[in-house]
Amino acid sequence: MGVVQGYDKYAFEPFAVTVDLAVLTVRSGALQVLLVERGQEPYAGRWALPGGFVRPDESAEDAALRELAEETGLTDVSGLHLEQLGTYSDPGRDPRMRVVSVAFAALLPDPPEPQGGGDAAQARWVPYDSAGPLAFDHDRMLADAHRRLGAELEHTCVAAAFCPPEFTLGELQQVYETVWGTTLDRPNFRRKVLATPDFVAPVPGAARLTGGRGKPAALYRSGGATALHPPLLRPATEGRSR
Amino acid sequence: MGVVQGYDKYAFEPFAVTVDLAVLTVRSGALQVLLVERGQEPYAGRWALPGGFVRPDESAEDAALRELAEETGLTDVSGLHLEQLGTYSDPGRDPRMRVVSVAFAALLPDPPEPQGGGDAAQARWVPYDSAGPLAFDHDRMLADAHRRLGAELEHTCVAAAFCPPEFTLGELQQVYETVWGTTLDRPNFRRKVLATPDFVAPVPGAARLTGGRGKPAALYRSGGATALHPPLLRPATEGRSR
DNA sequence: TCAAAAGTGTTTAGAATACACCCATGG
DNA sequence: CCATGGGTGTATTCTAAACACTTTTGA
């Protein structure tokens, strides 16, 4: 109910509330995650997701944006995709006290090199597959972020949030292939994307060479659509029903 | 990062952490939600989602299950679908102090009449459309629960969680129609459900009259599948891309 | 015998798939 | 002129949608 009996703020065992961010990007064809190395106990020297305390005057979303700016130097939030993943609240998840953490997933198009600041010894982009084991329950958070992201690619247009402002359809396709770990048929992918209104919008006349070789590819911008209907389903695998 | 500088638990402005539950059910063809009437200020006399404090030794999920049992008398959790919706953390969402609330969506198949207990003046099932305006930011939570639920029906098998242990395909279809606010073609719905492995399992020989009239319908149980692949998409409406 | 609800069949349109093929560019 | 990546066309297969029809029950 959100009811506090009485008004004594200190009547209860205090909870600390933090945010943790699974900041993901696609670089050189690989899914990468932003990690920081912890400088203090517990888990000193272990890698962890960036994050920090929610301040008394800000929401969890505000705190996540602030921490993101602090840890990555990213202050230009245009085109950034930030999304609440879930809240992790196991009583024993921090050995010192009761810490409830709101996890966020963030997607960056063209990430800056991070500088380790604050209580982090260093910060680095790490390939998703070689990340971990991480401090606290951050392995679970990261896995949840990946699973959620993969599902969202199917029925939203977030993939464009992984791409620079102007991108080729090949780059967009690589996002799908990287996150899903599959390959897609290029002609069909192309048709599907172009047939979805406002998924992408062509940049007239513009073209760019991608691999140094080959025909220059037309450039597109994000078209503003968020929903992808009908969805773009990943190829069925054994683990799923049907 | 989840790092506490030092170990003074009282060094920070304390946060209270609560859970709130959007408990939904389908009764007599209408989507209903469990509400409680608040007995105290603020919002005394207003309706709100049930919920309460997370205790020091339990996770938010544990707290949600406990509150659900306390408010509805539901202790048999078999077949219950409980799912974290998100965390609501606006600094001003509770006028007295900083309260961060983890919202859950819960689905009940055949709900008992609730008894108002604890600090609630009374508890009642209320049709979804006539719920609100609610206390705090509970209108938003409820709307988010509805939206999330509608989306989940498309690619999961949660609809069975709305139905009693043995149900007819007509009842299952009514869940979809009620939550989506649409009508579906019965033959096509039937084919789709039966073609999905382990969505439902027939109860051999059993049948039941539904509307007092008509041919008795065969009974099914939930088949254990969680994913629905390919999805069962709701009819496209104007508001969506494509 | 009629209304109501379950269940079956069939036709058609659309979407996804799997290819084969052509185009432009750098080496 | 070949390798590389972009872009187009098309036949096939699968799915979804629409709707006519039969079956079984209570009144």
From TrEMBL, chains A, B:
InterPro entries: Nudix_hydrolase, NUDIX_hydrolase-like_dom_sf, NUDIX_hydrolase_CS, NUDIX_hydrolase_dom, WH-like_DNA-bd_sf, WH_DNA-bd_sf, WHD_NrtR. Residues 14-148 form the Nudix hydrolase domain. Residues 220-242 are annotated as: Disordered. PROSITE patterns: NUDIX, NUDIX_BOX. The keyword Coiled coil does not apply. Keywords: Hydrolase. CDD domains: NUDIX_NadM_like. Pfam families: NUDIX, WHD_NrtR. SUPFAM superfamilies: Nudix, Winged helix' DNA-binding domain. GO terms for molecular function: hydrolase activity. Signal peptide: none annotated. Belongs to the Nudix hydrolase family. PANTHER family: ADP-RIBOSE PYROPHOSPHATASE, SLR1690 PROTEIN. This is NUDIX domain-containing protein. It comes from Streptomyces nodosus.
